[in-house]
Design brief:
two-stranded antiparallel sheet, about 5% strand, transmembrane helix, membrane, phosphatidate cytidylyltransferase activity, PC_trans, nucleotidyltransferase
């Protein structure tokens, strides 16, 4: 009897694997095409996907029985907050590049403050004795979502502006770590890492750490011969772009205690980013797992076949974006 039921299970497992693999190939191909199109295309991608992410996040708080009691404004508050937060963070970068003399740039932060003040006034006007408690629940989830999702998502716009290389490095290191953790855990996993995610193992975590550090050290070597990856302000698909070579892409010899070693400084910076991507960024994913477990969810959404929602795929990226922009702006010349 068991022999009759095994083939369908095995077939379903292979079918799910094929769906996941096919989706992954499309995602990778699409992301490479977007990166090649430059930082404006990356901004457009982030701008669109962040609305999907905030919807996936805030829908957890929705109580269908209470929805009729709140106004249209409060229902759409997550999307309004996303737009305003995105404008607050990303607009100065774009305005400085395309409208440097615009009053929008000069008075940017004052304008944003006025918008936020207006939103608070409108929110309070829409409060009633019947919906007050639930309205504040929706407001709280909007604030949290904007802080943990929208702010770091827009920081990636700055990373892409530094150069396509740094954006690709930050994004790809997370992808490598996630993939290596999966295969290391499946192959060697024996000891659970944290209670929130029983499938995450110590062996998977360590294997991903080692593999990501190796990738972080050697991956920059693939880009040193292609200036369009490390030049700033590259036009879409301008693969013949040339510019002054940044110091981190100049082969440098370092001497210590009578011994010397030669490498690109970008390799060292990439190694540090890889260390963060392996040791700290995964806890963004664990945090997401804890939230899903607390609310009895399997995935945040179902937008990507076999992979769940947007947040399910990029939860670690939010942590990496914040570290990436702070590290690059602090320790590099940008």
């Amino acid at each position: 009897m068991s022999s009759k039921s095994d083939p369908p299970k095995q077939s379903g497992r292979y079918s799910d694997l094929l769906i996941r693999f096919g989706s992954a190939i499309l995602l990778i191909g699409g992301q490479i095409a977007i990166i090649g199109a430059g930082h404006i295309a990356i901004f457009v991608e982030i701008f669109i996907l962040q609305f999907v992410a905030i919807h996936e996040f805030t829908k957890i708080s929705i109580q269908k029985s209470m929805e009729p009691s709140i106004s249209f404004f409060i229902k759409k508050l997550p999307f309004i907050g996303t737009f305003v937060t995105s404008y607050l963070i990303a607009a100065p970068l774009l305005l400085r590049q395309y409208l440097p003399n615009s009053p929008l740039l000069r008075y940017h932060y004052f304008i944003c403050f006025c918008i936020y003040a207006l939103l608070i006034v409108i929110f309070v006007i829409n409060l009633t004795p019947e919906n007050g408690n639930y309205a504040f629940v929706r407001l709280s989830w909007t604030f949290i979502g904007c802080f943990v999702l929208i702010v770091p998502a827009n920081l990636y716009v700055y990373v892409s502006y530094y150069s396509l290389f740094w954006f690709f490095t930050c994004v790809s290191l997370i992808a490598w770590n996630d993939t290596l953790a999966y295969f290391s855990g499946r192959t060697f996993g024996r000891h659970p890492l944290i209670a929130l995610s029983p499938k995450k193992t110590v062996e998977g975590f360590v294997g991903a750490l080692i593999g990501t550090l190796i990738v972080g050290w050697f991956q920059p070597l693939l880009f040193t011969k292609y200036p369009f990856t490390y030049c700033q302000g590259v036009a879409p698909y301008a693969f013949n772009t040339v510019c002054e070579i940044p110091p981190e892409f100049v082969l440098t010899t370092f001497e210590y205690n009578g011994k010397s070693i030669t490498f690109y400084p970008a390799q060292l910076h990439s190694l540090i980013l890889a260390l963060f991507a392996s040791l700290v960024a995964p806890f963004g994913g664990f945090l997401g797992s804890g939230l899903k477990r607390a609310y009895g969810l399997k995935d945040f959404g179902n937008l990507i076949p076999g992979h769940g929602g947007i947040i399910d795929r990029v939860d670690c990226q939010f942590v990496m974006a914040a570290f990436g922009v702070l590290y690059i702006s602090t320790f590099l010349r940008y």
